[in-house]
Design goal:
Chain A: It is found in: Cell membrane. Chain A: Belongs to the binding-protein-dependent transport system permease family. Chain A: This is ABC transporter permease. Chain A: Its main location: membrane. Chain A: The chain crosses the membrane at residues 24-45, 89-112, 124-145, 202-229, 249-274. The complex is a heterodimer. Chain A is mainly alpha-helical. The longest helix of chain A is centred in the first third of the chain and has 37 residues, at 77-113. Chain A has eleven helices and no strands. Chain A is 73% helix and 0% strand. Chain A has one domain (22-284): MetI-like fold. The longest helix of chain B has 36 residues, at 87-122. Chain B starts with a helix and ends with a helix. Classes of the chains: A mainly alpha, B mainly alpha. Chains A and B meet through helix 4, helix 5, helix 8, helix 9 and helix 10 of A and helix 1, helix 6, helix 7, helix 10 and helix 11 of B.
Chain lengths: 289, 315
């Protein structure tokens, strides 16, 4: 038997119509799509080969041939930004996956069980929060060796308590509701209720937090690879490009300007997307409009 | 109230003890023998063994933890392998850079964020609000180290107003030292200010809907007075929370910025210590930072209880 819950039903098309009227959502969505497309296109085509060094073309300013200029090895900056997008997106996305995959069940479990289990899980959460995230991520990557995989793990670990907290808070607000009581009366176990009724109702919350953590992950990855702890050369990464640019700021400022702008635009897009989704789907913010 | 205080305090202490066990355990399972590292690859096994005994590395695990933890409590962190000086001296020296940097950044971010948040909230939905929140949205997206590079390019390379990096030390005079902390502080403050401005705005908007604001307006107080005296004061709780978090972040989060500007701060110390496997320095600094984060969180929690009477009665 399935229980059907009638929350003031919004049809998919009415949400969609609302979404297209929301400037933040549309802007964020378009930017995110463009960045994703850029990363995908880089697998089949880039203006230049990023692995080929053309020393005769080194540190050339932006031109028609090289829109964003070239670096100290004569590599095309635009091509490197395109390929670097893959790395940023992959690291941040998998880190969000780790955080959601472990954090959400933990948070939902804590909310469902309550009492001592809840208390214990939340204290562990506090423990992880007490460690400065960036410093710990740096420690993890420095100790276990630099590279994209360890960067993912380092960033992912600190996503876990974030999602656990959001999932728990969301679930706690759902549990006292009447339809949960009905599901209980129908003899469903708390795990079943968590999966079938609580999770769908906190999905929006998780989606919004997901885009925020995605954006933060991109910033964190850039920081790690700036310190030489992220993806290793020759694989281009936005943070590494900024590191290479630093000592050449006087002769080739474009080496620093464009990769940085790529980060800013990506993070901006994701944040706008998150704000937009929250705006569209959260009744509270709708009322405040 | 006392129960609440004691409970918070107990939780904080327990977190601190757990954190110290985690730090100790993680560094314990790391590959690499500190004695071997200190003596170099050519040392004989006997020499290494002798040094291990001298350093107390052969004692039982629990005993070493207790020894280490009691050392932390008396601020005796041991000696750095690479610098051969007591860790506490290194920390004190580096804090002289990191602490002022964090404080200046925090002050800058507050000075920018609160007026912007006030401005935005009072012009909600109008052009001024849209523009300043758009700017805040942009500020949140800027990686502080990239912003730092741009600042270096404009103010150090181009205009030659400030040094591009390095730190002359406080002995060189307050002004030259402050000058070299200025760009890093601005770079750190911008994204923080953007976040804080957004929080201030939304906290204010929430408060401005409350009944007592209407009452204050109804009794004839000018809008500006209501905003500053009634709304801002009541909106300060979430703002203070974020400020507390940001201060904790600033203490630890300056690693990258200190690297960009070649500042001899705590972050750079710990980063170099990590790469040189100077574990005593790493564990001491990490523990200090964890303690700082826990202390700041505790203070923020307690300030909640002071401001919000409902929390006091809750057990």
């Amino acid at each position: 038997m399935t229980l059907h819950i009638d929350i003031p039903e919004e049809t998919f098309s009415s949400i969609l119509a609302k979404a297209f009227r929301n400037t933040a959502f549309v802007t964020g969505f378009v930017i995110t799509l463009l960045i994703l497309a850029m990363a995908v296109v880089s697998y089949i085509w880039t203006p230049y080969d990023v692995t080929k060094l053309v020393i005769s073309d080194k540190t050339q300013g932006p031109s028609l041939a090289h829109w964003f200029g070239t670096d100290h090895f004569g590599r095309d900056i635009l091509s490197m930004i395109m390929v670097g997008a893959r790395n940023s997106i992959a690291v941040a996305l998998v880190a969000v996956g780790i955080g959601m995959g472990i954090g959400v069940p933990l948070g939902a479990f804590a909310a469902a069980r309550g009492g001592l289990v809840d208390e214990a899980l939340m204290r562990i959460n506090d423990l992880v929060f007490a460690f400065p995230a960036l410093l710990s991520a740096i420690m993890i990557t420095a100790i276990f060796g630099p590279g994209a995989v360890n960067a993912i793990i380092a960033i992912g670990i600190f996503n876990i308590p974030v999602f656990a907290r959001v999932a728990r808070a969301g679930a706690l607000a759902i549990w006292p509701r009447e339809f949960i009581l009905a599901a209980r009366a129908a003899g469903k176990s708390s795990t079943q209720i968590s999966i079938e009724h609580v999770l769908p109702n906190i999905a929006t919350l998780l989606l919004v937090q997901g885009t925020i953590q995605f954006a933060l992950g991109i910033l964190a990855e850039a920081g790690l690879s700036y310190l030489g702890l992220g993806a290793q050369p020759p694989m281009p990464s936005w943070g590494r490009m900024l590191f290479d640019a630093q000592t050449r700021m006087v002769v080739a400022p474009w080496m620093a300007i464009f990769p940085g702008m790529a980060i800013v635009i990506t993070v901006l897009g994701l944040n706008l997307l998150g704000d937009g989704i929250a705006d569209i789907l959260d009744p509270k913010s709708r009322r405040q409009r | 109230m006392t129960t609440y205080l004691l409970k918070r305090l107990a939780i904080s202490l327990a977190t601190l003890v757990l954190a110290s066990i985690v730090v100790f355990a993680v560094l314990e399972i790391l590959p690499g023998d500190p004695a071997r590292l200190m003596l170099g690859m050519n040392a004989s096994a006997d020499q290494v063994e002798l040094l291990r005994n001298q350093m107390g590395l052969n004692a039982p695990l629990a005993l070493r933890y207790l020894h280490w933890a009691s050392g932390l409590l008396s601020l005796d962190f041991g000696r750095s392998y690479t610098y051969s000086v007591p860790v506490i001296d290194l920390v004190r020296e580096r804090l002289a850079v990191s602490l002022p940097l964090a404080l200046i950044a925090l002050a800058l971010s507050t000075i920018i964020a609160i007026p912007v948040g006030l401005f935005s909230a009072s012009r909600r939905g109008r052009a001024g609000d849209t523009i300043s929140m758009g700017a805040a949205q942009l500020g949140v997206a800027v990686p502080n180290f990239w912003f730092a590079l741009m600042l270096i390019y404009i103010f150090a390379v181009w205009l030659r107003l400030v040094p591009a990096g390095g730190f002359p030390g406080w002995s060189a005079g307050v002004w030259p030292a402050l000058k070299s902390l200025l760009l890093p502080a601005i770079a750190l403050a911008l994204p923080q200010a953007a976040i804080l401005a957004r929080v201030t705005r939304s906290a204010l908007i929430e408060v401005l809907n409350d009944d007592y604001i209407r009452t204050a307006r109804a009794k004839g107080l000018p809008y500006r007075a209501v905003l500053w005296r009634h709304a801002l004061r009541n909106a300060m709780i979430p703002v203070l929370t974020i400020l507390g978090l940001q201060f904790a972040f600033l203490l630890a989060g300056t690693i990258i910025i200190e690297n960009v500007f070649y500042l001899p701060g705590l972050g750079r110390l710990v980063f170099q210590a990590i790469t040189q496997r100077d574990l005593i320095v790493v564990e001491s600094v990490v523990m200090l930072l964890v303690a700082a984060v826990i202390a700041v969180n505790l203070i923020v929690d307690l300030s909640y209880a002071v401001v919000d009477p409902r929390l006091r009665s809750r057990q």
